[in-house]
Structures are given as C-alpha cells and as structure tokens.
Amino acid sequence: MPEIFANIPQIKYEGPASKNPLAFKYYDADRVIMGKKMSEHLPFAMAWWHNLGAAGTDMFGTNTIDKSFGASEKATMEHAKAKVDAGFEFMKKLGVKYFCFHDVDLVPEADDINVTNARLDELTDYILEKMQGTDIKCLWGTANMFSNPRFMSGAGSTSSADVYCFAAAQIKKALDLTVKLGGRGYVFWGGREGYESLLNTDVKFEQENIAALMHMAVDYGRSIGFTGDFYIEPKPKEPMKHQYDFDAATAIGFLRQYGLDKDFKMNIEANHATLAGHTFQHELRISAINGMLGSIDANQGDLLLGWDTDEFPWDVYESTMCMYEVLKNGGLTGGFNFDSKNRRPSNTFEDMFYAYILGMDTFAQGLIKAAELIEDGRIDSFVEEKYASFKTGIGAKIRNKETTLEELADYAASLKAPEMPASGRQEYLQSVVNQVLFC
Ligand code: XLS
Ligand code: CA
Ligand code: CA
C-alpha cells in the first residue's frame, strides 16, 4: 500500500537542541522519570474525529485541507477505510499507541441504523486487521449522540421515548466496538444533555432518565466483559446553554446521587475546565481527591475567545501543573487524548504532524518539570507546614473528630483572640515554579 504521508519520516527524539521540525525535543519514550518510562506515564491517543475528520471547516467557510486520503468519494466505506490507513500510518510514525473514536467518526451514518451497524462491523474488522502486529489499541470509544437531528432535545434527556431507544442502541453498539478494539474506557460526553429554558424542561425527569441509561450501559458493558472505566466528560456549555455535567464537582455529585460512582470516573478536558471558569488543574484535583481522575482530553482553549477552540496544548505551565496532579494521583487508568485540531490555516499534512509533536513535547516537558517540582519538595513541604496547627493539641482533636462545638468555643474564649494564620506565600511559591521551569 502506498504511503499517505510519504514525505514524513518516522518521528524520533533528537533532544532540546534539535531544530528539526519533524523530531521530538522532549518526548523520549524510553526515558525513565520517577521509576516509569515516559511512554507509560503518557499513553497518548489520537482523536479520530479531529485528526482524520476535521478539515478546517468553520461557520464561515468550508474545508481548507483535503482529508480524503486518496479515496475517490467522501463519506463512503472507501473513504472510511482510507481514514483507517491514514490513521495507522500517522500513529505509527509518531509512536502514538492509542486512538479514541465516536461511532460515526468511523463510518458514514446511514438512514437505517441496521445499515450503520453493519458498516461498523465491517470497518472495525478492518481496524482489527491493521492492529495485528502493532501495539496500537483503542483508549476509549463513545457514541455520538449530539450530531444527528434526532438528538435535538437530548439523548438520555430527550422528550421522545423512541429517540431514547436510539441512544441506547448506539451506546450498546459503541460498547461492543470498544470491547472488540481492546478499549480501556467508555466516555459519555453529554453534548445535548442540558437545556436552554426551564419553561419547557423537567430537569429532575431528564436527569433520572440519563442516570437510568448509564445504569443500563454499565450492566450491558459488564455483561460483555468490559472491565474498563466509564467516564463522564464534564463541560458547562456549548452546544447547550446549561449542560448537566457542568464541571467535575457537579458530575461527581450526579454519579453519587444515582449510585454510579463505582463504575464511573472523570475524563477531564482542559478546554472544558476553562469554559467552566476553572483552571485545568482545579478540575483534575477535584476529580483526584474523589478517586475519580480517570482520563484526560489534552488540549487548550483561548481565554480571549471563550468557546471550545480545541487547540493543541502548548502551555507548559498548564501541562506541568496537569502532570503534577497526575503524578500525585499515581497515574491514570486512561490516557491523554489529543481532542485538538489544527488551526484552519495550518492546512497541510506536515501541520498534522507538527501539531502532535507540539502536544507530545508539551506534555513531556510538563512531566519532566512536574517530577522536578515534586523532587524539589518546597511546594509539598510548604503545604504540609501550612496546616501544622492541626497536628497537635486542639487541631489534632478536630482532625480526629474527638471534640464538640462547645469545647471549641470554650477554647476560643480562653484565647480571647487568635494569632493570624501564617502567610500563604503565593508569590514565593510561584517563583519556585518559575525557577524549576526555567533552570
Ligand atoms: C466536545 C467533546 C467531545 C467529547 C467526545 O466538546 O470534547 O469531543 O470528547 O464526545
Ligand atoms: Ca473532549
Ligand atoms: Ca472540546
């Protein structure tokens, strides 16, 4: 089979001094950091939809890059297979070991769901063939329950019982395919699970129906041998005004309320975190302290634009603080999916590679610097010391739940007035981060 990216060589690590645009400067797969290879810390994944599908279209203009990959007609099975060929060549050349997909990223959707499902069977057989002899696997699968017009009023939250059944059917098939392709996880991103006006919406009813659908998905997934994690991917808005999975705290509360917390974790996307008015690190920390940091959609937004721009991550402060959370979490059960797309004017095949090299190097730099921050120890020891008053005396009694409100009030009365807490030293700690980053 002729190469699709014929002018692109195997991408190798050449180190920070290299000026070769088609080489890694920081991602050195076999380098050991804190006892583990970089490739194990960073299970990178290619997002099928952006990398093989998105062709630069926006609301004001059509494609700027041709992603037919040699197929004579788009939206055909010939094109679907050409995308598989392109995807595997792309992943092999970069050393990316995972991919993520929606059902309808793989094949063109037919009017009849039975036809779509037959196409999915045929195409995933082809993917399985391609996987032979490689160590490439699926990171997670999902069902697209937001593009088709039938989902205009939601999938699990729809007002139509028939549409609800179509959502169920798509989830069932996407779970079958995820298991078939060795997927580590299964994602629910509730694109249309939300509302615009309470005048026409029964929120409690809709949330109960979403939870019921998730329970049925868990039961079915476990019955076919899916042992991985289910994920909710929180996002506050776009396309809906109010989305039910606003942020990690909201999604975790929902999972606990409906008894789904044993099977689900979070898939945290950087761009969604900032849309929710949080930092990426905040969303990771909230997930981690609840035992639910599962997987990451690695991208970044543009704070000046304020919508879901899905840019390739290049902010090393962000990737460092992300990897700091991931290392403290003991890693991920999932991985790092580049839910990112080239900018519209970056419209060549070379740009697709430059984008992944940028993203992989940004996270490798983040990993190196996060490990240095942890080994440096100044941040950890500051935080430890900050709460030292809870280690002994009345503080220890509070932590050990050995006191009462009356005892604490008597203690306060005996002091008359407390000393001020010690300084938070934020600027000093920020200078520690800069010192580690730029030394
Ligand atoms: C959209 C989401 C979506 C999910 C998968 O904003 O990021 O792509 O990751 O459905
Ligand atoms: Ca995403
Ligand atoms: Ca997104």
The CATH topology of the largest domain is TIM Barrel
The proportion of strand residues reads 5-15%
Please tell me the overall pLDDT: 98
Please give the radius of gyration in angstroms.
Answer: 24 Å
Query: Would you tell me the structural class of the helices and strands?
Result: alpha/beta
Q: Considering DSSP H and I runs of 4 or more, what fraction of the residues is helical?
A: 40-55%
CATH level 1 name of the largest domain: Alpha Beta
Any idea what the CATH architecture of the largest domain is?
Alpha-Beta Barrel
Q: Which oligomeric state applies?
A: single chain
The parts where pLDDT drops under 50 for at least 5 residues are none
DSSP summary: helix tally = 16
Quote the distance from N terminus to C terminus.
Answer: 47 Å
Secondary structure: number of strands: 14
- Please describe the biggest sheet, giving its number of strands, its sense, and whether it closes into a barrel: 8 strands, parallel, barrel
Give an account of the 3D structure.
By secondary structure, the protein is an alpha/beta fold. The protein has 2 domains: 12-376, Divalent-metal-dependent TIM barrel enzymes (TIM Barrel, Alpha-Beta Barrel), CATH 3.20.20; 379-438, no CATH class. 45% of the residues lie in helices and 11% in strands. The chain is built from 16 helices and 14 strands. Strands 5-6-7-8-10-12-13-14 form an 8-stranded parallel barrel, surrounded by 4 helices. Strands 1-2 form a two-stranded parallel ribbon. Strands 3-4 form a two-stranded antiparallel sheet. Strand 13, helix 11 (316-328) and strand 14 form a beta-alpha-beta unit. It is globular, with a radius of gyration of 24 Å. The model has no long low-confidence stretch (mean pLDDT 98). One calcium ion (CA) is lined by residues 233, 269, 297, 339.
